[in-house]
Amino acid sequence: MIQTQHINSAWAQKWPAPAKLNLMLRITGQRDDGYHLLQTVFQFIDLCDWIIFHPVENGRISLQKLIPGVLEADDLVIKAAMLLREETGYEQGVCIEVEKNLPMGGGLGGGSSDAATTLLVLNELWGLRLSIEKLMELGLILGADVPVFIYGYSSWAEGVGDDLKKISVPEQWVVVIKPDCHVDTKEIFLAKDLTRDSKSITIADFIAGQHQNDCLGVVRQRYQSVENALVDLSQFSEARLTGTGACVFAQFDTEKAATSAYHLLSKKWQVYLVKGLNESPLLSKLKKCSDID
Predict the structure, then answer these.
(1) Beta-carbon contacts of residue 143 (< 8 Å; ≥ 6 apart)
(2) Using CA atoms, how far apart are residues 264 and 269, in angstroms rounded to an integer?
(3) 48 φ/ψ angles, rounded to the nearest 5 degrees
(4) Regarding the domain delimited by 173-277, which CATH topology (the fold level of the hierarchy) does it fall under?
(5) Which stretches of the chain drop beneath a pLDDT of 70?
(6) What Å distances lie between residue 95 and 63, 76, 114, 233, CA to CA?
(7) N or C end of the chain, less CB within 10 A?
């Protein structure tokens, strides 16, 4: 827990909600309730939304500024705060300020990461003392990607993406392209031509180079701009899709090579130059504010 003397300053701080990449995504089956069974590898990158929590005295949970096209009640940040309060019976409110940097519909986990940061930080600021395991359980109610952002480490994930095992992967330089489209995750997972029976692999298989994304074929067929981004990025390194997209990415061994690709691609695309991280920036910040190593 954050030490008591740091609580007031913690309210005034900007808290990171980092992006993630899916370094591999296999769909191995589907449950009766419609959820898909997955194998995937999550790694964080140092591209973040930033969230500030403002204490209020009227007990209301609200956003300081709405995201265009998203009702306040539908925002995952609001849902996370409400869920936390419902679970604990806590009565105080909060006004949440979100600096949005992660593109929506990009497969980088922006909404899920915002929700995870809200759960983790309000758990501290409100003094609720819920365990990480309980917060991950609550996070799964909000979305399949929320638990990994709460867990805070690069992970080998199975089940619906919530059965997590810590994994260490190279923290390489990464170039990410955001095509000018919004990929509907639900549409992709409902697609009749989506592969749903991939053979399970092991971590050793992944490390040896098996990192296909079963959503890739469906997405590139339906979204021409994603296909075009993959073609352009593949001129510099192996181009891959994260999640259901729309973002595509490529890893580089050196900053120089990544920077060169970034500058050339930025003439045509919305591009990010980032670094892979095995520990979430949010977890790192929480550790610095905590009396627990």
Answers:
(1) 76, 111, 112, 115
(2) 9
(3) -135, 145
(4) Alpha-Beta Plaits (3.30.70)
(5) 1-8, 291-293
(6) 6, 14, 14, 40
(7) C
**Tokens 């194998």, residue?**
39
Q: Which residue spans of the chain are classified as CATH 3.30.230.10?
A: 4-167
Give CA–CA dist 29/159, Å, rounded: 9
CATH 3.30.70.890 maps onto the chain at 173-277
Tens of pLDDT, residues 6-22 = 556 778 899 999 999 99
pLDDT given at position 105: 86
User: So what's the pLDDT on residue 176?
Assistant: 98
- At residue 81, the pLDDT reads 98
Q: How many CA atoms lie within 13 A of 73 on its CB side?
A: 0
Q: How far apart are CA 166 and CA 292, in angstroms?
A: 20
Q: For position 293, what pLDDT does the model report?
A: 36
Cα separations (Å) of 236 from 107, 253, 254? 21, 12, 12
Mention every residue, 6+ apart, whose C-beta is less than 8 A from residue 189. 36, 244
- Which CA distances in Å does 292 have to 198, 280, 289? 41, 17, 9
Domain 4-167 belongs to what topology?
Ribosomal Protein S5; domain 2 (3.30.230)
* Angstrom distance (rounded) from CA 119 to CA 96: 12
| Peptide linkage before 261 cis (omega within 30 of 0) | no
**Nearest-angstrom CA–CA distance, 223 and 279:** 32
Catalytic residues: 20, 145
What pTM value is reported for the model?
Answer: 0.94
DSSP labels, 262-274? HHHHTTTSEEEEE
> Cα dihedral sign for 209, 214, 215, 216?
positive
pLDDT value of position 6: 54
> Rounded to a whole number, what is the distance in angstroms from the first to the last CA of the chain?
10
